Task: inverse folding
């Protein structure tokens, strides 16, 4: 007779390891996400309020800055009245505050100098001698 061998059928089942953690239901996941979104919404709302306050402060600062700029421009216009055109042209390369600073530090150098009268290249002969003789006659010295 023939012998038949029976091989037992082996079935394996996988069980999740104990350290895998807790599983959540869809309702629990929805609640977690909803809570997280609410916290983020509150956080963003607080940041927006903070930015609005800062924007208001920025507008106030801009107004004050504009007033200062106008005052500096007026002061600069007044200070530039007595300077030479050459100095004025050089000063234009500086910002207004630097211009005022330079003008304040160099007030003695900013006034218009007396015009230089050029000496004539040709004088009539004897002119210098005639003036010298006249001065000696009147007891003046040259």
Result:
């Amino acid at each position: 007779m023939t012998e038949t061998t029976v091989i037992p059928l082996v079935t394996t089942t996988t069980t999740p390891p104990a350290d895998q953690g807790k599983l959540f239901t869809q309702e629990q996941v929805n609640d977690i996400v909803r809570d997280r979104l609410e916290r983020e919404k509150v956080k963003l709302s607080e940041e927006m309020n903070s930015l609005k306050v800062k924007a208001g402060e920025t507008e106030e600062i801009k107004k004050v800055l504009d007033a200062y700029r106008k005052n500096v421009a007026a002061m600069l216009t007044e200070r530039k009245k007595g300077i030479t055109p050459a100095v004025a042209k050089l000063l234009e390369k500086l910002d207004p505050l630097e211009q005022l600073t330079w003008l304040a530090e160099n007030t003695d150098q900013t006034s218009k100098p007396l015009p230089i009268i050029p000496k004539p290249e040709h004088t009539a002969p004897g002119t210098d001698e005639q003036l010298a003789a006249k001065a000696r006659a009147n007891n003046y010295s040259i």
Remarks:
- The chain has a mean pLDDT of 78.
- The first helix runs from residue 26 to 79.
- Residues 76 and 100 are 6 Å apart (CA to CA).
